[in-house]
Amino acid sequence: MTVAEVPWLTDEEQATWRAFSTVSRLVEGALDRQLVRDSGMSHAHYSILVALSESEGETARMGDLADFLQFSPSRMSHAVRRMEEAGWIERRRCSSDGRGQEAMLTPRGRETLERAAPGHVREVRRLFVDQIEPEERDQIRRISEMLLTRMVE
User: What's the DSSP call for residue 96?
Assistant: First the structure.
């Protein structure tokens, strides 16, 4: 496709995209800073702990965890290595087939998550939930779910 053939964004489309993109970066950055400051972990590490805490047996295959969080395999492996060093998770051979690896939440990881969660929730509420009306939250959820569905197909 040549430059002339690109369907450039209209002014309205550009404004919508830039507002969404900027808000996304600002919220992600603020959540990351809050978690690092208050709990010594990144937002990515927090997301992994949450995903494991919600998994059956607090354990998940590494590949499934990476897919769920939309992390590359190398990003997941690097994060898990650092989290193992902190004692928050353990990595072991997959119990169901012995081929892959699983990540398992440790008691220390659960305690760390439980200490981090209240501050994180307060920050999510401050930055997002309390800033918009319930109807607007419903609209954002529906739009986000639709985009997610289309992006992961």
Answer: T
CATH code of domain 31-151: 1.10.10.10
What residues contact 109, with CB distance under 8 A and at least 6 apart?
49, 52, 83, 87, 88, 89
Domain regions of the chain by residue span:
31-151
For 71, the 3-state DSSP assignment is coil
Name the nearest CA neighbour of 79 among 108, 43, 54: 43
Cα dihedral sign, 93-95-96-102: negative
- Predicted TM-score (pTM) of this structure: 0.89
Q: How many other C-beta atoms are found inside a 10 Å radius of the C-beta of residue 20?
A: 11
What would the pLDDT profile of 32-66 be if each residue is shown by its tens digit?
A: 999 999 999 999 999 999 999 999 999 999 999 99
pLDDT one-digit tens code per residue, 16-30: 999 999 999 999 999
* Spatial contact of 42 and 50, defined as CB atoms under 8 Å apart: no
Which amino acid is it at 47? S
Q: Which amino acid is present at 143?
A: I
